[in-house]
Amino acid sequence: METNSNIGCLFDLDGVLIDSERLYTKIWEAIEKQWPTGVDNFAYKIKGTTLEDILDHYFPDEEVRSDVVKELYRLEALMIYAPLPGAVEFLDALRSRGVPVAMVTSSNDLKMKHLWSDMPELKEKFDVVITGDEVTHSKPDPEGYLTAARRLGLEHGNYIVFEDSLQGVKAGKAAGAFVVGVAGTLRAEDIAPYSDMVVNGVAEVNIDSLLSEVRNRIRK
Predict the structure, then answer these.
(1) Distance, CA of 108 to CA of 122 (rounded, Å)
(2) What is the C-alpha to C-alpha distance for residues 129 and 112, in angstroms, rounded to an integer?
(3) What are phi and psi of 126, to 5 degrees?
(4) 160-188: per-residue pLDDT in tens?
(5) Around Cβ 34, how many Cβ atoms within 10 Å?
(6) 117: closest CA among 80, 70, 88, 145?
(7) 42 — phi, psi (to 5°)?
(8) Cα torsion at 14, 20, 26, 30 (round to 10°)?
(9) The sheet that has 8-11: what strands, in order across it?
């Protein structure tokens, strides 16, 4: 089988690989109700951004900030993470084809520790993991994806980004990636303007057809 080491796949986490976005929406809606920001659709507007960014922009008061973090961590600790249908199989299929794989998440290291505890087998499926604690600029800035591509040794644009949030698909585009938008967190029409392809889940993607399409674009 031909390897595809010249093309990499870069994945967001929540809403793409694990079934957590609905829970996080409820968590942030509850937090916003307790500490109102006055921002319409707040829980959706912040998707894809780091906790530090959320706190800086919406909860600048130190006392409120501290209370928000405590409540977030309390509710996060109650969550049980599970993969979305077909996600683990999709990662395995990529690796069997020799495709470098990275995770680029806005989640911090504390949450990732929880995730690895719930799903220890998931970590080994990635060559590179970039967390929110490792970047200076949150999505839609492309820093996280560009960092992952560099660590994988990929040339600019030789990668596919899988994202579900508006901030995320914009970050993928800004990074020069072929963007696969994953509908569910948002409607397909919301992410389509910043995506090259929109699916309802990664299990819908034909890996060989996708790699072939991206390879042909690179050659042009």
Answers:
(1) 17
(2) 10
(3) -115, 140
(4) 999 999 999 999 999 999 999 999 989 99
(5) 11
(6) 80
(7) -50, -45
(8) -70
(9) 128-130, 101-104, 8-11, 159-163, 178-182, 197-199
Omega prior to 85 cis, within 30 of 0: no
Name the one residue in this structure whose structure tokens are 């089988």.
1
Q: Provide the 3-class DSSP secondary structure of residue 192.
A: helix
The pLDDT tens digits for 197-210 are: 999 999 999 999 99
How far from chain centre, in Å, is Cα 156? 19
pTM: 0.86
Whose tokens are 């042909």? That residue is 216
Q: Is the Cβ–Cβ distance between 18 and 87 less than 8 Å?
A: yes
Measured over the CA atoms of residue 116, residue 54, residue 77 and residue 25, the dihedral's sign is negative
Residue found by looking up tokens 């299929």 in the block:
93
CA distance 177 to 160: 5
The tokens describing 132, both together, are: 């929110």
Sequence letter at residue 145: Y
Give the number of other Cβ atoms within 10 Å of residue 78's Cβ.
8
Exposure of 77 by Cβ count < 10 A (0-12 exposed, 13-18 middle, 19+ buried)?
Answer: exposed
Closest residue by Cα to residue 18 from 101, 93, 66, 90: 90
Which tokens belong to 55? 């706190």
Neighbouring CB atoms inside 10 A of 44's CB total 17
Place of tokens 């680029």: 104
Contact in structure between 159 and 178 (CB atoms under 8 Å):
yes
